[in-house]
Amino acid sequence: MLQGINLACVRGDRELFRDINFSVEAGCLMQVSGPNGSGKTSLLRMLCGLSNPAAGEIRWRNTSIRTLENEFFADMTYIGHLSGTKDDLTVNENLRIASALAGVEISVSQATEALAFLGLGGRNNLPVKVLSQGQRRRVALARLLVCKTTLWILDEPLVALDVTAVQLIKEILERHLQQGGVVVMTTHQEIDIEASSKMQLHLA
Hints:
Structural class: alpha/beta
CATH superfamily of the largest domain: P-loop containing nucleotide triphosphate hydrolases
Order of helices and strands: EEEHEEHHEHHHHEHEE
Helix content: 25-40%
CATH class of the largest domain: Alpha Beta
Largest sheet: 5 strands, parallel
CATH architecture of the largest domain: 3-Layer(aba) Sandwich
Number of strands: 9
Number of domains: 2
CATH topology of the largest domain: Rossmann fold
Shape: globular
Oligomer: single chain
């Protein structure tokens, strides 16, 4: 489903990586690892179309993502290492607006249900600025419960989360993989996610 072919990344005068190749099929989890500065976030940004590789090609369902453009974006959800929430909006508004920007309109009740699953019940109408960093991360990750996409690209999704929240995200990821979804993620935390297929891509 998702292929990287001879990918290279250059930042300034420094080459972060080159000749990266992989093929990720339905139900597969690919974890990207490597030391700080090795290009993990840069690779994920390439995979979701936010930046271009210095060389190589990224394909989704055997077609270049540059050819697919909006068709690819409609089938992909990217959550970066920053939560991306807006301080002055409520918890509910943040989720509904983020979903709408991704092309998914959800009702207040749908947002409320997703937020409650992640332990944010009763906080729907609070401004995000009063939440802890872990709670803000839960708001961002609640998008995974309402999106309809096949490919999830997640940059450090577990950052700032407590043990309970990590377990909830684990359940969400496993359910998505069981349904034939694809997950590409980076994480510095130990987490054992069940999947029919797993890959490890290490950037030196």
